[in-house]
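Example S7 (structure tokens).
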């Protein structure tokens, strides 16, 4: 049976604020799953903590709601256990570029075959409006009433410089385009990251849908060379003209393809591994 996006809904309805950019990302992910015609056991999504992590309740299928900043190492473990299983991470900008900054560096340089989708609302939304790693210098919030001292983390430039083989950006207000970008990321073999501008309509009154509509443009229209690291990083340095689409892409063997212990097949399919896991689980009964 051909899948439709709504086939991935659960009985739990989203609890996000009306108008939240998370709805657009949720819809785009379901569109991609439907385009693959995947059943719930054909993929796994690892969720971080925050408003984005609440999506764990709203998409049917294999999933893991991880600790704050720990979605990537959990995803890596799942991928190494069964490298035939597509693995997607859903996390926020604070979750990814703050708590998980170190994990991002090493996931990128190892080129783990994982797709990371970052909900970038430039604020900590679930905890009611503190400045995040992507908030602009001078941003006034609960945690920075006199203005943010630090400058924003450039997550995409960091990912490119550390070896990510697919780096892209999307906007929750451009559903069709975002769906296409995420699909390319999922299809890519190796570490892929998609930073998604996701307006927080409750706590961030600066980075709104109107702001991103005015300041974004599609790279496809500029005929961007997505194979140049230098040009891709240069694009990320412009904080006023924000690119949407694939910034950088290269082909390189993924981590699991080079790991000697995985050359005979998945770990989960090996009897010695399966037996040891079964034995381990006895301690948790």
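Recovered sequence:
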């Amino acid at each position: 049976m051909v899948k439709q996006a709504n086939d991935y809904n659960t009985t739990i309805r989203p609890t996000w604020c009306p108008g939240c950019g998370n709805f657009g990302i949720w819809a785009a992910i379901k569109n991609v799953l439907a385009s693959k015609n995947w059943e719930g056991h054909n993929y796994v999504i690892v969720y971080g903590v925050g408003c984005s992590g609440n999506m764990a309740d709203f998409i049917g299928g294999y999933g893991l709601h991880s600790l704050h900043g720990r979605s990537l190492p959990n995803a890596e473990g799942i991928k190494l256990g069964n490298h035939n299983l597509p693995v997607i991470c859903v996390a926020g900008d604070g979750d990814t570029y703050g708590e998980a900054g170190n994990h991002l560096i090493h996931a990128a340089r190892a080129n783990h075959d994982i797709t990371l989708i970052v909900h970038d609302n430039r604020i900590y939304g679930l905890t009611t409006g503190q400045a995040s790693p992507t908030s602009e210098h001078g941003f006034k919030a609960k945690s920075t009433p006199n203005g943010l001292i630090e400058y924003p983390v450039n997550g995409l430039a960091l990912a490119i410089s550390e070896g990510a083989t697919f780096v892209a950006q999307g906007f929750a207000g451009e559903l069709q385009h975002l769906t296409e970008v995420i699909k390319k990321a999922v299809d890519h073999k190796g570490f892929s990251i998609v930073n998604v501008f996701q307006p927080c309509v409750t706590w961030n009154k600066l980075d709104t849908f109107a702001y991103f509509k005015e300041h974004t443009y599609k790279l496809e229209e500029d005929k961007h060379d997505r194979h140049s690291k230098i040009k891709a990083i240069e694009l990320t340095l412009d904080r006023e003209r924000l690119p949407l689409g694939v910034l950088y892409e290269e082909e390189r063997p993924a981590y699991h393809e080079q790991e000697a212990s995985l050359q005979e097949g998945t770990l989960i399919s090996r009897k010695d591994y399966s037996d040891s896991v079964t034995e381990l689980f006895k301690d948790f009964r």
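Notes on this example. The radius of gyration is 19 Å.
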